[in-house]
Give the backbone structure.
Amino acid sequence: MGQHLGLPMWAFAAALSQLEGMTPKKLRIALLHEEPEDAWARAVCDSTTSDEVVARIFECCEHENIQVVSIADPLYPRALRYDPTPPAVLFYRGSLSALQQRRVGIVGTRSPTPSGVYTAREFGEQLAAHEIAVVSGLARGIDGAVHHGMKLHYDDVAHAGHGALGKPIGVVACGLDVVYPKSNAGLWEWVGENGLLLSEYGPGVQPEPYRFPQRNRIIAALSEVVVVVESRESGGSMLTVAEAIRRNIEVFAVPGSPRVASAGGTNLLIQQGCGPVTSVDDLFAALALDHRRESGSSYETRVSPDAHDHDVLLACTDGAVTLDHLVLLLNRPLHDIAVSLGRLEALGWVVDTNGWWEALMR
Amino acid sequence: MFSSIRSATLLGIQGTPISVEVHIGSGLPGFTVVGLPDEACREARDRVRAALLSSGAEWPNKKITVNLAPSSQRKGGVGLDLALAMGILSASGQIPSNNLAEYSFVAELGLDGSLRPVPGAAPLVAGLRESRVVVAPPNAREAKVASPQSIHCAATLRDVVLALRGEGEWVDTASQENVKGGTHFPDMSDVRGQPTARLAAEIAAAGGHHILFVGSPGAGKTMIAERLPGLLPPLTNEEAVTATMIHSAAGASLPPGGLITFPPFRAPHHSASMIAMVGGGSGVLRPGEASLAHGGVLFLDEVGEFMPSVLDALRQPLEEGEVRIARASAGVTLPARFLLVGATNPCPCGGGAPGACVCNETARARYLRRLSGPFLDRFDLRVAVAMTGVEELLDVHEGEPSAVVRQRVARVREISLHRSGGVNARLSAQELDTYAPLTNAARDVLRRELELGRLTGRGYHRIRRVARTLADLSGNDGEIAEETVRVALLLRTRLHEREVA
């Protein structure tokens, strides 16, 4: 039965995973006990499902450049093999060797503040530079920003022919041929080319809401430590944290202002005992790579603002403010503040989101 | 057994003279109206008959044919009632026809013979300028705006007949003339704090710049927008007459004096249809909100909730200052030069400081997408309005009153009128080079914005126009300084967050 198809084993495993009525548990048991081909034959023997399904999924994966690894395969990631709820079949693009690097999971809200985005981007850049892989979910907001930061570093050193870099590892909640969100399409492709793009779902599977918590468990399982950059008190990132705690994986959080809603979750985590992270040095320490935590940045690359502008900068440090706030707070004419903001913005000290100004201190 | 009476019908804001020809001949008793009347016009025969009988006149039991000439043009409305009645009375010899040719008649008839007002009296009378026009008393004020000398009023059909025979008097309308309409715009002094939005409103008024307020619910967007027309100078005579014509044609309410002397303020609800916004409709092509706001302010609250097609339909009036409505049967051009004021939340939940928004991604993207593109680009000023602090809100000191701001606005308008013949918002690119040269520092600021892709070519010109108005307000007549351009940039907030990655 089926031998005559001459299809590789992984195609049968992939087809099994997409079979109707196939639960993750059944799939895992089937694949652990039998060759995928035999498991397939058993599963479809009393149904009308034809072997063409296998051929179709084989062609689809070949065409979309998607590789498949099942739990019985020696290539299957070790980090997942001993997981309480491992995905039985993994679909991926890129190289599984990315998982051999040290791995940090970085997650966060989909609607972050600018400072959250900058932090995530900075972490991405520096972890890439220090040869540490970053696991994330390629979602909008923090997830995208951290991989975007890695990409920035790759682009920076591209012409220099730099040696080893930290790899991006993206775990997504839909088929690898279904790009979601569309705005991250470029990043999606880049991760597949330079690192590892991973999903538990076969080609064509849509990003249904219930798949995201499932995906988050894989992010947690693949990470040695998990860092939450910004999160509300409830949300996908907090689910990732719960999964990490379940697996005894250490969780860190970036502290934020208590006035910022999207830092509510991270601050709560710190209150509950998670370690605070303010720079990548903290992560090196967490990964036992470097115990010398450098206090703050030893140098500032930005040109310091003059005393006049400095007052405006200080007024922007305590959460985002509008022009109105600045005028009333500093009691200076509007045009004067406008000029200061313009200069500060040009030097990279403040950013503007829809009319709200926020300082970017170290 | 024939008579011809003059009246008028309305198309857009233009009154067209009509001859109501009545022929009474032998044959079976009957009453036919020909000459492309609409339903309201055709129903006139029943009203006229009842009105004549109620007034004690006689109904000729003969074959009555009414023609509305020119016969090829559609007629609508009820303003022809009185002319029809007069035609029948004249053709049946119940009133002398010798001096009827001097008169025109524009009024609806009640079944009891009373004269009722019709919408569009001012433009209708304007179309009948060389004759004496009889209108219902409530229409007298607006009719006099179009033609002050030759308006006659009577309360009932019977009074009209008596006056024409020389046995009665027309109603005296002189007493209504000297009523002065006042402004009732709320005052800027009610606004506490909000220095940015105040400045932006002042610039908008002074330079005729369209303005969009973006901010959370309760931040004061609507409050400031409602006070904006109070910052504009009163209308010139010509503008006032045009505004009155438009309001009359649309059947909108007029001030006690009849003439609209203050800038109109129109705030249509966001469920407005395209026709309601730009004008149209079958038959009369009624002016829409865009035309009613001519010379004043069109305020679109919750601008993102308007149907996208309605907003897009505003693009022509925004560019050209008029709406050209074309229909199979007719086309009209309606004036529509207004100051557009929009107000919107940054997202469905109302947003606030960055990170405070709890909307889901798709909802927020959809909300902003409605506002995107060319329409958003029409706003010279896009101002983020934030909640006033408690201190300012409880402050007993009043803000600067509208009257003071209005003086500055009037001065800048005068300067710009003198300089370029219009407001600063309508300066062309060449005129900008001549009248709004930039200092080197200012040019560098704008160059950086252009290089960063944060300013489009169109945005570049808009910033320069706003900067010109700003400089005018501060009494600077020469080159535009850096700080002026910086402020102009701050008053044009980018609405779309740049997507990360």
